[in-house]
Amino acid sequence: MGISSALYSGISGLTTMSENMNVIGNNIANVNTIGFKSSSATFQDVLAQSVATASGTGQIGRGVQLGAITPQFTEGSFETTSNATDLAIGGNGFFIVTPQNQTTQYYTRAGSFDFDSEGNFVNSAGDVVQGWALDANGNDVGTLGDIKLSTFTSPPSATSQLTTITNLDSTATADSNSLIAAWNGQDPTAPIADTSYAYSTTQQVYDSQGNSHDITIYYNPVNSKNTDYAAGTTDPTDPTNTWEYIVTCNPSEDLRAGFQGTAAQGILMTGTLTYDPTTGDISSVSAYTDDSGTAPDTAANWTESSFSSAGYPETTAQFVSGVPQTISLDMGIRSTSGEWSDGGTSTLADVQGGTALGTSDWQPEAQTSTQYAASSSTTYQTQNGYAPGFLNSISVDTDGIMTGSYSNGQDLKLFQIGLAKFNDEQALTDVGNSLWSANTQSGDPITGQPNNTGLGNISPDSLEQSNVDIATEFVNMITTQRGYEANSKVITTVDTMLSDLINIIR
User: Tens digit of pLDDT per residue, the chain (506 long)?
Assistant: First the structure.
């Protein structure tokens, strides 16, 4: 082994130091690149050559070579942004993106996302973020796929429950003998006179097409002016703590079969409310509806209503032709059995004839209707329907659930962002644009929802910065420069020695 071997050792040192400087330069160049992961180069010596020594055999190294360039997946610092779709991952995992109209998946920590003109949730290169579509209950639908908004509107939802909590003045007196008799659905200006009831409250509901309709409930006490509840007979309930009510809509909007052209058109439900004389809380309800489709002016056709699954009496309206709409009425009390004590056999005609009202196992709720010696008022009302709405904004929570806020007041869960991790993430292939691809060394991706199976959580309104440490890179640059300088000195020294060798013959 001649002295010239040292030249090649020096050259190997220059080569590896040059490659290391390339790594350092790339790190520094990407110090402000979102989601960039720095790399570090490691060196290893070349297989040594055996030489004869006085003590036997020895080994002399033949230089250095590049051992590996390893990405460092330590988490970068987070920058807060004003964009709700800027996302960062706190902990393990990568976002999954796919070029449009392709199936190849790439993985990234750069979460600068937005929606394109076609509704795709994309990164700056137009790759579509992958996730799961969610149903109305927030459950996953189907498999991992493109996050794409196919519509920017929220469909309407028909009202199915109406809640009206009132206080009815215990000192009020009846203004008519019977509300149902005072109602005239054929009067286009005033179906019921102001002098026929003691109190009324109106609430807006929605049909299946998102059209709004006013539901008005009229109340009238059963007392000295109304000892017969209906027409000419004695009311079997205690008149001092009982109120009659009717639930109505605009008669022109009532499209139920059999109600057209009748005085009862617009009446959805009728019945009584009975209050505890000691506490003033509502204690029981009777409720009658006419689903016969024939002659609603006949009291015998008004039978005890059915109950919703929650124990509230319900009626069937029809605001859209051919589309029945079941609406339950919550007045702060519910039936625990969902059945009438008489089996639901009595009719409004029975009540008018003096037969006791059907009862149920009633349970007042925390917020309930009352009968106090105070002005009649509506203390709380709500309903669960809504009109169509337009998308106003998008938000993402720490579990990666993307929620749309719509102009109709609805917040709908739309998608859940998917994450992936690898058994050997350092073996991933860097394909540029802060993207990585899987290979046989990294293993297949392990996908899942954020905050599950060892995957990190999502930090919305944030971007993960480059994890490059400038101070460390500058120190590495200095040591690499000195290493390069030292190796070049080896070459110049060997050159001098060779020159001296050549000059021996002179």
Answer: 567 777 778 888 888 989 999 999 999 999 999 999 999 998 888 767 767 677 777 777 677 888 888 899 999 999 999 999 999 999 999 999 999 989 999 999 999 999 999 999 999 999 999 999 999 888 998 899 999 998 888 889 999 999 999 999 998 887 778 899 899 999 978 999 999 999 999 999 999 999 999 999 999 998 644 444 444 444 444 556 889 999 999 999 999 989 999 999 999 999 999 999 899 999 999 999 998 888 888 888 999 999 999 999 999 999 999 999 999 999 999 999 999 988 888 888 877 666 666 788 899 999 999 999 999 999 999 999 999 999 999 999 999 999 999 999 889 999 999 999 999 999 999 999 999 999 999 999 999 999 998 999 999 999 999 999 999 999 999 999 998 898 888 888 887 888 877 888 66
- What phi and psi values does residue 52 have, to the nearest 5 degrees? -80, 135
Residue 108's domain comprises: 80-149+397-464
- Same domain membership, residue 213 and residue 336: yes
The answer to the question of residue 392 being in a domain is: no
Structure pTM?
0.73
Contacts of 295 (CB under 8 A, 6+ apart): 258, 262, 301
Q: Are residues 182 and 241 in the same domain?
A: yes
Same structural domain, 292 and 347: yes
32 and 177 both lie in a single domain: no
**CATH code of residue 324:** 2.60.98.20
402 and 354, same structural domain? no
Whether the CB-CB separation of 357 and 237 falls below 8 Å is answered with yes
The answer to whether 161 and 309 have CB atoms below 8 angstroms apart is no
- Amino acid in the structure at residue 68: A
